[in-house]
Specification:
Strand order of the largest sheet: 1-2-4-3
Largest sheet: 4 strands, antiparallel
Strand content: 15-25%
Helix content: 55-70%
CATH superfamily of one domain: General secretion pathway protein M, EpsM
Number of helices: 4
């Protein structure tokens, strides 16, 4: 005798498949969330590690910048010391010019001429003084032409406005300092200025 199943088996099978589908869908969602969380955590570790490396590099950069500033300060001090050393060496090398320039200034001054000031600019001297006459000034210029370390006298100013007969004419001469042999290519701004300033004081005192 045949058996007939009157129960709603199709509906039960459909519900069973739906339950399986929802179960698989939930498992897939959970797996996706776990994968996403794992990827996010991995990237977070990498970002944190990179930030730590950046912070370390920035610290090292700051230390290097401090060292660079100290090195620059040392370089400036070194340059200053070298400049002072060069000035001292140049002064010592040209000390003999003091005596010879002083000798030229004193030896070439004729009677009736008196220097009041001597100014130095590089290798040039400006001689300010007073004289009894124009002839005395001309004689002084001729004497300077044959001096040892002074050359090319150039009369800039001569005026008759002195207070008395002995200082009747006020004049200004410009001369050049001769460079010793073998120093044409060297710069000698500091040494000539120093020696000529001393010579000016000596010349004023002896004139």
């Amino acid at each position: 005798m045949a058996r007939i199943n009157l129960l709603p088996w199709r509906e039960e099978r459909r519900k069973l498949r739906q339950n399986e589908f929802y179960t698989m869908l939930g498992a897939a969602a959970i797996a996706g969330l776990l994968v996403f969380a794992g990827i996010w955590y991995q990237y977070k570790l990498q970002i944190d590690g990179q930030l730590d490396r950046n912070a370390y590099l920035q610290t090292q950069i700051n230390l290097l910048n401090d060292k660079i500033k100290k090195i620059e300060e040392l370089d400036r001090r070194r340059a200053t010391l070298i400049a002072r050393k060069n000035v001292i060496e140049q002064l010592q090398a040209n000390r003999w010019q003091l005596v010879r320039i002083f000798d030229d200034l004193v030896r070439t001054i004729p009677e009736g001429v008196r220097l009041t000031a001597v100014k130095a600019t590089g290798d040039q001297l400006q001689l300010d003084g007073v004289a009894e006459s124009n002839a005395r000034v001309s004689s002084y210029m001729k004497n300077l032409e044959v001096a040892n370390l002074i050359q090319e006298p150039d009369l800039a100013i001569v005026e008759a406005k002195g207070p008395d007969r002995r200082s009747r004419y006020v004049f200004t001469l410009r001369v050049k300092i001769k460079k010793p042999a073998g120093t044409e290519g060297e710069e000698g701004g500091t040494a000539p200025t120093t020696t000529t300033a001393v010579a000016a004081n000596a010349a004023r005192g002896s004139a």
